[in-house]
Every structure is written in C-alpha cells, then in structure tokens.
Amino acid sequence: MIQANKANLVTDLSLRTLDIRQYEMDYWMGVFNKLGTIASTLGGFASTNMLIDTGFEGKRRNQLLLLSYILAAGSALGFNLVLFTISTLVGIWAPGKALRGEGHESMEEAIRIMEDLFDRSLFFFLAGLLSYFLSSILAVFWLFDSAGAFIIFAGLVGFLLVMGRQLVKIYQAFVPSSFRHGGLKGNPAPNIGQTMNPQDPRLRGQQFQASFVEAL
C-alpha cells in the first residue's frame, strides 16, 4: 500500500512537471512564431530594396557604393530568409518531438534545442535588421544628391539610435541575468511511460510496473 501511494505521488509529480514544461514549450513556440513573422516582413522589405533601379542615365556611377549596396541588400534578404526558415521548421517539428515521447526526456530535449536555436536566431534577426538599415542608407546616397542624401541619412541614423536605446531598455527590464528551467532534478520517473506495466496492453497506463514500485 505504501509503495503504491509512493508510486501515485511520483507519477502525479511527474505529470505536474510536464505541465510546467508545456508552458515553456508554448513560450518558445510563441517566440519563434514572432521571429518568423518579423523575418518575413523584413525579408519583403529587403527584396524590395533589391528591385531599386541602380542604372539611371546620366548619373555618375560609383562602383564601390553600388557593390556595397548590393551586398547589404543581399545580406538583409539572406539573414531574414534563414531566420524565417528556422522559425518555420521549429514550428513544424518541435511540437512533434515533444509530444511523441513517453515522458520528460523528449519534452526537455525539444526545449533545449529551441533554447540553443534562439541564440542563433537572435543573431540572424539583428544582423538582418542592421543589413536592411545599411542597404537603405546606401540606397539613399545612390539615388539622391549629396545634400538630400545627408538629410535622409541623419534621419535614418536618428531612428536607429532611438531603436537601439529602446532595445537596451527593454532588454534590461525583461531579460533576467539567468534563466530557470521547469525540469525536475533527481526525478525518479524521468520517463513516465516506464512506470506502467508494458506486458498486458489492457493494463497499460492503468497498473504500475512492479520493478518501478519496488525501486521506490
């Protein structure tokens, strides 16, 4: 009787821990969903930049400026395309990875992979954003005369500084110095499926495995 009560307690604790990990899973899915949406928007803007006519007749051609512009616009499109691909694939495969396992192991591995991918995704997002701003600035100098270009350049740099300042303030306000995970350390039942009797299909999920109960 005592062993059965202990088994019920451990199983209930494992299920509650899985509920907490599900909150983490939902959080990361929301993060990658937002990143994918932003990447598709910025990628569209970057592709529009690449369609700008750079061969106006009578305009003195600066080949270095043109090359820099093409590289910046192409980098913006490439970074955002990579980010969009990562976000899409995470949204497709991560939930299946977490749900097809029998217990904590598959859920924890899926969350760990998403945490690792987030750092790289954040790099691609910032790199794509800066590349887009750089391509816009270079396009201004290519399309306008010096006076008009410097006026627009000052405005774009001002917006970039304001955006950077807000980014730092939001980061300091919401991002903790260290993250805490919902995983249960020392969990005696890391795989909840192993606690059930696998011999008789009629009892699976209803009767505890004797070896598990005896180990408690």
UniProtKB/TrEMBL annotation:
Annotated keywords:
Membrane, Transmembrane, Transmembrane helix
Which species is this UniProt entry from?
Vitrella brassicaformis (strain CCMP3155)
Q: Could you confirm whether the keyword Transmembrane helix appears in this record?
A: yes
Q: So where does this one cross the membrane?
A: 31-52, 64-94, 122-144, 150-168
**Protein name as annotated:** Uncharacterized protein
